[in-house]
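I'll show a sample.
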Amino acid sequence: MTALRPLFLALVSLIVLMTAPSYANAATAQDLNRDSQQALQRLYRTNPLAESLSHSAKAILIFPNVIKAGLVFGGSYGEGELLENSKVTGYFNSVTGSWGLQAGAQSYGYVVFLMTDKAISYLDKTQGWEIGVGPTVVMVDEGVAKNLSTSTMKEDAYAFIFGQQGLMAGVSVEGSKISRIHR
């Protein structure tokens, strides 16, 4: 039975990878707007710092549902929207490819609070923003959150990952390519 486990995981990962874009892809702009608002409210309930950051952010990039799967080679995909002054100003996708020691599948959401005009301008002017290149993005986890306040915020953007579900170790948005899409 234990010999079949890697084969089972490979099969599940393959199925998830083949169907991930359809699950992570909102049917319409209206669906994506609803999902993004629900994800943002869920993040605010579980992380008060995120809500505090939202008050001083110039824009908020929300990816309510990203699907990640892999078996040696992996990838993730999700669609989201950009809010400026509480209005949707664009739609984006988040795509990541990876290889290495990995097996499994999971879903999660993430939100990036764009704190500077530089960060918004970079997102607008590039054909795709690869997180880790360009404006500085700080991943906010429990350790960072303890030392972060509105007076200590100095970076271009702050990212929060939330709602992780599934069987895959580790989630990072570093290396994700964010590109504008039409809805």
In short: The first strand starts at residue 59 and ends at 84.
